[in-house]
UniProtKB/TrEMBL annotation:
Domain of life: Bacteria
InterPro entries on file: Gfo/Idh/MocA-like_OxRdtase_N, Gfo/Idh/MocA_Oxidoreductase, GFO_IDH_MocA-like_dom, NAD(P)-bd_dom_sf
Residue span(s) of domain Gfo/Idh/MocA-like oxidoreductase N-terminal: 6-118
Ranges where the GFO/IDH/MocA-like oxidoreductase domain occurs: 152-227
Organism: Candidatus Paraburkholderia kirkii UZHbot1
Protein name: Putative dehydrogenase
Molecular functions (GO terms): nucleotide binding
Coiled-coil region(s): none
């Protein structure tokens, strides 16, 4: 069976990572595009691909799938690809807001294609282990934090291009909370005294579980973690890799865990889904990522309004548009 013909749109950090992952699984990229021709040439060199000067230069009829690795405000390639019935992988977040995403959601729903979003933490073995084990385990509450420095690319600090740090970066933890603990019922967010780069969020889940999430992009070092409180020992996931450092099912100290290339796992899962036609391999389909976007919007609305925001009420507003 012929392997899918692929294009990469957006050749910054994530475009480069996807190109390298595709090479690892022996998938050739046919076209690459970026507004920066030097970046496009760098990624094209990995696969001996054709670097094009515009999306119109690609022969879309040759393509099966497209990786869209552009900033959140630029989803032109997504619209083209969906309209031409191509499989699409989109780096998170899906857009600047849920309102901006509605037309894309409407385009994806009736099509029998694979639409995946790059919430890579869903593909970590530690996360999948915890998710499977807590299905029948009461979770009393949770504490999450994502502390880091600003992402040093020009578009990241511009809300008109990234949607702001909460939209572009804190979305990782919001999505992970949803993936492990189910849907969010209500959020309440307050801004830190140090400025808009630090936010504390209280989340009430539909299950009744409650927890907090502190996000800051005002630090100089990275500190990431998630702690789930059980009736016994807490479940502790630590660091960028979310290593499982403690859990009630552990009878002895957890030894060092091997590192994994989560971007490779995520890329391979998308390709497996494209080749088989079975969307089950994709852990973050577009329709589910839209739900994460809705929660992120609610957090921003809570900050703006100075009160709690109910997710379902905001979703009803969107449905009325």
């Amino acid at each position: 069976m012929l392997k899918p013909a692929i294009a990469i749109v957006g050749c910054g950090r994530m475009g480069l990572i996807r190109a390298q992952a595709l090479k690892c699984v022996s998938h050739r990229v046919r076209y690459v595009f970026d507004v920066d021709s030097n970046r496009a040439s760098q990624v094209a060199g990995i696969h001996n691909s054709r670097a094009v000067a515009s999306l119109a230069e690609m022969n879309w009829s040759e393509l099966d799938a497209v990786f869209v690795c552009t900033p959140p405000n630029d989803r032109a390639a997504v619209e083209i690809a969906i309209g031409l019935d191509k499989h699409v992988f989109i780096e998170k977040p899906i857009h600047l807001s849920a309102r901006h995403s509605l037309s894309l959601l409407g385009m994806t729903l009736p099509r029998n294609r694979i639409f995946a979003v790059g919430y890579m933490n869903r593909y970590r073995s530690s996360i999948e282990d915890v998710r499977n084990r807590i299905e029948s385990m009461p979770i009393l509450g949770f504490q999450a934090h994502w502390i880091c420095k600003p992402y040093m690319v020009p578009w990241w600090a511009d809300p008109s291009k990234s949607g702001g740090p909460l939209n572009e970066q804190a979305t990782h933890m919001v999505d992970l909370i949803r993936y492990l603990l189910g849907e969010v019922y209500q959020v309440t967010a307050i801004q830190g005294m140090s400025g808009p780069g630090t936010v504390s969020i209280m989340l009430r889940m539909q299950s009744g579980c409650i927890g907090t999430f502190v996000y800051s992009c005002s630090a100089t070092e990275k500190d990431i973690g998630l702690r789930l409180f059980t009736q016994h020992t807490p479940i502790v996931l630590s660091g960028w890799d979310f290593y499982l450092s403690d859990a009630p099912w552990q009878t002895s100290p957890i030894q060092g865990q091997s590192s994994e290339d989560v971007f490779l796992s995520e890329t391979k899962s998308f390709l497996d889904a494209v080749e088989s036609g079975d969307a089950q391999a994709v852990r973050s389909p577009f329709a589910d990522a839209f739900k994460t976007q809705v929660v992120v919007d609610c957090i921003r609305n809570s900050l703006r309004l100075g009160t709690h925001v109910t997710v379902e009420a905001y979703r009803e507003e969107l449905d009325a548009l």
